[in-house]
Amino acid sequence: MIKIFDTTLRDGEQSPGCSMNLNEKIQMARQLERLGVDIIEAGFASSSPGDFKSVEELSKAIKNSTVASLARCVKNDIDVAYDAVKFAAKPRLHIFLATSEIHMKYKLQMSEEEVLEKVKKYVSYAKSKCDDIEFSAEDATRSDVEFLCKVFAVAIEAGATTINIPDTVGYITPNEYADIIKRVKEGTKGIENIDISVHCHNDLGLAVANSLSAIEAGATQVECTVNGIGERAGNTALEELVMALKTRRDYYKKDTNIVTEEIMNASNLLAQITGVKISPNKPIVGKNAFAHESGIHQHGVLKERTTYEIMDPKSIGLNKNSIVLGKHSGKHALKDKLNELGYEVTSDELEKLFIKFKELSDLKKTVFDEDIRAIMVRELQNVEDGYELVDYNAFTSDGKDSKTVIKVKKKDEIIEMVGSGKGPIDAAFDCMAKITGSEIKLKEFSIYSVTQGKDALGETIIKVENNGRTYAGKGISSDIIKSGILAYISAVNQFNGGEVSEDVI
Ligand SMILES: CC(=O)SCCNC(=O)CCNC(=O)[C@H](O)C(C)(C)COP(=O)(O)OP(=O)(O)OC[C@H]1O[C@@H](n2cnc3c(N)ncnc32)[C@H](O)[C@@H]1OP(=O)(O)O
Ligand SMILES: CC(C)C(=O)C(=O)O
Ligand SMILES: [Mg+2]
């Protein structure tokens, strides 16, 4: 069994912009407990009164997971950390001191002897207060391994029950890390019943790979954070590590206590609390991690999910994968989407719709359900009988009402009208209302750019109400007045498909 030590609330909070207040930390800690993490590092209690309060309150709130506070080899840090975690059902003190030459020389200005002495003194002091002691050799992966073994032996002798070998600056590679762990296991006196922990940073994008390699070499605890947040490039992402172990159980043969179905909840909650968005291609929890856009993949997944999915989305708490329609999609996916939206189509109809779908997907990054409905309305529900834009002219100048002249075709009839309003789109809608003679209430109106650059295509989305029902209309054009008129027509054609208003006749 691999213990999962979550440091989202300590190292994770060291990410710029990821500070959390007390309530947010408690909410997150409760979710971490539901997720089944073995240890929650709640903070660095002596670093500020706010951190002390969070560690203290969290210790009172959490019942199943161990609650840890970080502390330097400083008496006051240890006293304050213990005062905060002493309320926990299972408290832990996490003491650290750097062991690399570079940190000892420039940062701590201590000799190896002084470091050994401090470790002995402060781990013993921590042990006099708390049974569960973790000792971390900061910057372990850039430390001399023989010295590292001596430091760990002293920490174990002084009462440490977990020793941590952090890759503080994300420098090590997987094989080298495995080698350090093996050498520490072989060369440290008293290490037999001690948990060996690893704590990786992602500066070279190797945090998860290094943690997995460490497990193969004998590590029994992995330190990680939800969504991989943490100092600089972040820490080992909990969801990636846990799902790698679960998905490749055949290879690693190790389990964790993580309730993987709670992963999405944890990830979403953290993103919501910190305001830090998850990139779409982030493994496991990114929006695209279980999305399929290309026709060949979609066809495979629709026939048998495992053709292109190595994990079941349900296993991380996602309802299902997503088939995203776009320019690379094929007919199988389009048919599946039509069925999902409640349309049964013949193969002839599908062929016809597919042509329209490809035309649209060349214009749009993503084809949404509403786009498919709009294609259906036009192509299959006899909206050839609806209004079709023939021409338009807009006259607008500052401070005066605008006028828009619209010419439409309905069946074989050409209708032309003038409308006026505050701006050319308002005037166009006035004109279309005259043409259709419908009692239409405009409820929503928005314009988006669907492509980039000076000649960007604008998409107008409107919602109109007619006889108590709401209809959505969309139009796309590089001219926003035209996209507005097309949106209006597409909405109107849904309830007025065919009938020319009597006023117009
Ligand atoms: C790798 C890691 O993630 S370690 C954890 C990093 N997290 C943090 O630093 C967040 C919280 N930190 C803080 O709020 C502050 O740094 C505090 C309150 C802890 C200390 O603040 P200050 O007293 O102003 O010290 P400052 O941060 O400027 O410098 C760090 C001091 O700790 C010393 N120090 C660093 N690590 C250790 C250690 N493990 N044990 C003992 N002393 C240490 C440094 O030598 C330096 O000492 P000096 O002030 O005598 O020169
Ligand atoms: C305090 C230690 C474990 C740490 O965060 C690191 O070395 O990266
Ligand atoms: Mg760290």
Taking pLDDT < 50 over at least 5 consecutive residues as the criterion, the unreliable ranges are 497-505
Number of domains: 3
Tally of helical runs: 17
CATH architecture of the largest domain: Alpha-Beta Barrel
The major pleated sheet works out as: 8 strands, parallel, barrel
Form type: elongated
What's the CATH superfamily of the largest domain, by name? Answer: Aldolase class I
Provide the CATH topology of the largest domain.
TIM Barrel
Pfam family, one: LeuA_dimer
Region (Regulatory domain): 388-505
Protein name: 2-isopropylmalate synthase
Binding site for Mn(2+): 11, 199, 201, 235
Structure description:
With 505 residues, the protein is α/β, with parallel strands linked by helices. The chain has three domains: 3-274, Alpha-Beta Barrel (TIM Barrel), CATH 3.20.20.70; 291-380, no CATH class; 383-495, Double Stranded RNA Binding Domain (2-Layer Sandwich), CATH 3.30.160. It has 17 helices and 16 strands. The chain has helices at residues 22-35, 49-61, 75-85, 101-108, 112-129, 145-157, 174-187, 207-216, 238-247, 249-252, 263-274, 295-303, 331-340, 347-363, 369-380, 424-436, 480-495; strands at 3-6, 39-43, 66-72, 91-98, 133-138, 162-167, 195-200, 221-224, 291-292, 322-323, 387-395, 402-410, 413-421, 441-449, 458-466, 469-477. Strands 1-2-3-4-5-6-7-8 form an eight-stranded parallel β-barrel, surrounded by seven helices. A three-stranded antiparallel beta sheet has the order 11-12-13. Strands 14-15-16 form a three-stranded antiparallel beta sheet. Strand 12 (402-410) and strand 13 form a beta hairpin. It is elongated and about 95 Å long. Residues 497-505 have low confidence and may be disordered. 3-methyl-2-oxobutanoic acid (KIV) binds at residues 11, 70, 96, 136, 138, 164, 166, 168, 199, 201.
